[in-house]
Amino acid sequence: MTTLRNFIPAKAESISELIHAWNLEEPAPSFESRDDGSPFTISGWVLSVHKATHVLIDIAGRRFSGPIDIERTDVAEALSGEFKGTRPVLTCGFSIVTNIPSSDVPSFDIALTHDDQPCWLGTFFFEELSKVQIGRDGWLFLDNDTNNSVEQYVGDVILDDQLKHDWMDYIRHFSTAANERGFEWRFLLAPGKEYVLPEYYPHACSPFNTPNQFVELFKADARFIYPLAELTHDKALTYWKGDTHWTDYGAYVAFTRIISSFGLDMESFERHMKISYTIEQSKGDLAEKLDPPPLHPRIAFSIPDSALAVTFNNHINNNGKIVVFENPSAHMHRTLVVFGSSSSDSLVKPLTLFFSRVVQVHSSASVDTTILDHERPDHVLLQSNSRFILECPAVYGTYSIKSVIAEKLQRLTDLERERLKFKVANYQFGTSHKNNFYKALSTM
């Protein structure tokens, strides 16, 4: 579990009364507790006012002590004034190794021993690194995520040559296959919320952020869509305070770019299709991480119940999810396959009004060729989120959604498996019976 070190003094004046200077080096300010049984260790250096001889720590009533006797020439060289070069500075280091596993230490009290009496400095405690950072006006943003979204934003992450090669190889193979199969395709990169609303984000954006590096890589290819300018134009309508994803309105903005890029008749669609939205108070995926989780207004797309039907859903969460939509009243009788990420969930809503058959596959833009063989689509949309740039999708022909599903099903309990079977059995598998293929892919 990744944790953050925090310190509460025993009393406000205790630090200045007892020490001139100090530093705790282990555990580090950002500390990862391990479950391998490794002992909890504390080390550092201290210059005490009263020439303390030992450092003492108390962990849940168990006391450990270590002498302040380790030479630290680096500290002596770094300090100036009356402490520089003196013997007490040279021997200011300490190290205490306990017999308590690191993973079992939620907090510890620390003291200096002077004349055999402990003088308590205060308490260090550990807490989970927050996955949420609160920006201006209460806007919530992702933080401490595995994709290092903050580091990507401020320009600390450079796309290396191997990663660039992998991305170009992925596109080259897929483009060749698309030409052979005769379908049109587009790649949509959904911008992170912080790029659309930088005025609320507590970090400065670098021109060398990773989405910019990615866009530069494919700037000559019109099949790549990064709708940052269009989303920024409407700002707070396109994203919402409590979630990492765009609103349904933001998804619709991206939808218009996709349809126009395909060269399809967007004007005729909007003339004949009444588009409406509602405002809902909702807990987003960021707000849910707070206690208590706040509600925020979200713009939601209104779709008539009679307009479309979900004719298959394997009810897998995230990667491995397959949902099929059929709409006989759609604007065009064509098939679209979406190999997307979580942002495609709201994107498929307007897409299902435009295309009569939409197959949504949650694969973060990795392509399963068996689905292309089965559907023979007119159009294919590859979709990923900007923070996922650091991981290239699987090279064309190497990805199997069935393997992903099988791995997830193996991790289910017997009860979860029975519930999933019941949900999947409720679908009629569409008028064309084409969805039996997806039932077979999701067999338990």
UniProtKB/TrEMBL annotation:
Keywords: Acyltransferase, Alginate biosynthesis, Periplasm, Signal, Transferase. One of its GO terms (cellular component) is periplasmic space. It comes from the Bacteria. It is found in: Periplasm. One of its GO terms (biological process) is alginic acid biosynthetic process. The keyword Acyltransferase applies. The keyword Transferase applies. Signal peptide: none annotated. It holds the Pfam family ALGX. Pathway: Glycan biosynthesis; alginate biosynthesis. InterPro entries: ALGX/ALGJ_SGNH-like (IPR031811). Residues 132-305 form the AlgX/AlgJ SGNH hydrolase-like domain. One of its GO terms (molecular function) is acyltransferase activity. This is AlgX/AlgJ SGNH hydrolase-like domain-containing protein.
